[in-house]
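pls ignore typos typing on phone
phosphoric acid mono(formamide)ester + seq
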Amino acid sequence: MRKSIRGGDLITLADVSRDAIVEVLDVAESFVEVNQRSIKKVPTLKGRVVASLFYEESTRTRLSFETAAKRLSADVLSLAVASSSVKKGESLRDTISTITALGIDAVVMRHMASGAPWQVSRVVPSIRVINAGDGQHQHPTQGLLDAFTIRQVLAERAGSRGSETGSELFHGLRILIVGDIRHSRVARSDIAAYLALGAVVTVCAPPTLLPADVSSWGVELSTDFEAALAQADVVGLLRLQVERGSGAFVPSLREFTSLYGLTAERERLLQPHALVMHPGPMNRGVEIDSSVADGSHAVIERQVSNGVPVRMAVLYLTVAGGEGDMS
Ligand code: CP
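k done
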């Protein structure tokens, strides 16, 4: 288990210790204040170059990483894969060698193939590699920002800052994750973060949308969605990953919604304090009703906002090694 991500890559949360996760959340909290200033910029990564390389579609992750790098004063090289030489058949290895030759310090990458960021980290160990989502493997910064969001809300309710109460707030917290667990890199990263912080995690999905090795994940399984909802402190919803073939694992969207959708009717089963989360993009009317997504339990917009300070913290710790002016 890594005690810190300082100076290293961030490919997965599966090998990151509780202390290292708490360090990211604490650093992110100090960057929240930077994001509230009229001039939202610090010199932390001045002179460094961060490349943004997205082989798969993204709205939230790409925008928040590029915003985070710019707010840290890094220069950002953004490769538009769809109009790049990738379309002429250039390999990942040659693309990475090319952008490395331009003099970059780090690459933030999303790829449809599980393991692609790990391969890049082996080919170019001199640059920092940050995984922005690889296949169905991991989406580590989503796991960190989801944990940060939960800690932030719980700390506010307790009348403290997250870094003051530490992450004790997670102990015994019941977190329910519902939907396409099988194909979800978000589920894998969320679960790694939540378990490391001491939460009790339950997953609920059609049996076909559970991975074969789920019994080794350290989570509880529920087949009774409504009973699990009534016990949950946090409910994380996942969309069906149609681009990874999930449509073949359920008879129809309507059937999925009727059994596993968080409808307005089911929302009434939630405890008053329960949080509803979704990493986005949402399919309103499928895994979540529109009224629930915009309702009083939802912290979905806050998840998006927190993407910037959490990704600033990850860039600061990995690229700058946690050294330099943060203010
Ligand atoms: N949550 C998430 O990864 O969203 P994007 O695909 O829009 O980046």
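The chain has two domains: 41-138, 141-304. The longest strand covers residues 128-134. more later
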